[in-house]
Model the fold of this input.
Amino acid sequence: MTKTRRIALAWILLACGISIGWGFSVGQNANGWVDFRAVYYGTRCLLEHHNPYKVSELEGVYRADGGERPSETVAAHQAVVLYVNVPTAFLVVTPFALLPWGPAHLLWLAFTAGVFILAALLMWNLGASYAPDISLILIFILLANCESIFGAGNTAGIAVGLCVIAAWCFIRERFVLAGILCLALSLAIKPHDAGFVWLYFLLAGAPYRKRALQSLFITVVLGLAAFLWMSHVAPHWIADWQSNLATISAPGGINEPGPAALTGRSAFMVIDLQAAISIFRDNPRIYNPASYIICAALLLAWVVRTLQSSFSPARAWIALAAIAPLTMLITYHRPWDAKLLMLTIPACAILWAEGGRIAWIALSVNSLGLLLTGDVPLAILSILFNKMHIGTMGLLGQLLTLVMIRPASLIMLVMSIFYLWVYLRRDFPDAKNIIVPS
Done:
């Protein structure tokens, strides 16, 4: 390893240390580790032959284990007892749920950090083949703003990390079997995070289609096992799951995209496109169709281009850079899911290496994308917004609200359109002419 790479690695580890240390400190507070508490107690509930999707049964297990605290907020409590994770997540969390809370949450933190940091190192190492300084800057911005992953313990840290590792394995043609397993587990944990990355490899042709199908097969097997387990313990769990989803997505729920949601004016707001449109018309009959039409048009153009293109590593990274932000816009996501934008770093490095105006546009778009989906900038903007007491009645107030409270949705739409434009308008040489071995 050269001196330059050792220095870069030190900066990366510093960024990781900031997020892990700060996140762990936040997690020790009364409302910390809320997302891991949800999957931990949900899985323990199932292991004790209770229905985790039934609020009364999960809450009973949660309280019996000393879960509820007097200082716990409504949002934090709702996030735990209204269980909505997919059943396959139980299989991943079970080894941790068999342990007491103390070692379980520490091992979860270590596992999350290991997977996530490995994914970040792979993206930095690949991007450094094209633009070392730019790749380091971008990965530092992303890693220094991941406190929520380590403070809340959300499964996104693992799902995103595994998805990114799988993409690296497939495109670099290394550790392919590990990549298949990583993508399968990512789909099992958070299919709405990894789904469109999986779709890219399905459409990219042989041998990538085969790998995508192999990953899907493993996920289906895991899904069948989880379904049978759940159905044996609680035959009517699907109705309870749907009820929980409806409750948290209803007006005032924690997953409602509108500004009236419990987390609608915080750094943990929903970041899909519906959340941005709802600033102007807080009506699901308007913001849902509008969002779906915009996203469907972008997705259709991306699918057609992918089917028409031959595969090359550089083209693959541009395709993934276009679909990663679009993934966040189509349906429910939060800022921790947006760490999937890590997949855009190699594409930005490729464009920077080309030079010219497009290099500066790519750097500007990517930098803003990583900043405005980062935990610290979002927290600062939400604090400033809440102190300013900006109304949303007039157009100016709505625009200020959009920029300060929904900047993530806005910038990801810009990112998706930009990289899709590059994907549609430009071509890239074959792998042997573009990839520099690391």
